[in-house]
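@channel sequence for tomorrow's demo:
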Amino acid sequence: MSGTQRQQTSGSNSKKFNEGAKSSPALGFTFDSEPVKSEVGALANVLREYQKMLETGSVDLDKELPKYIAAQKSASLDKVIAEKQKQLNEFLASQK
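structure tokens (generated this afternoon):
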């Protein structure tokens, strides 16, 4: 099979796949972080502190990952998740 034939076959497979895909119900949703602005800032600080060491694997993950998760919880991760879920639920209800 030539390169052109492979591209045509691949393209038609992609088109079939895309035509059969379902859109996410959350398509078009945008999170408004204003109600939890200070918590989002605190979470960004936690991420900055831990991101490089966790991504590079330069630390013992069994030791540092629980610390990272605890720091996220202390920075009100659950409050941010709850706010985002609330907004998503409202968005989804408005789409019906």
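heads up for whoever presents: The chain is about 75% helix and 0% strand.
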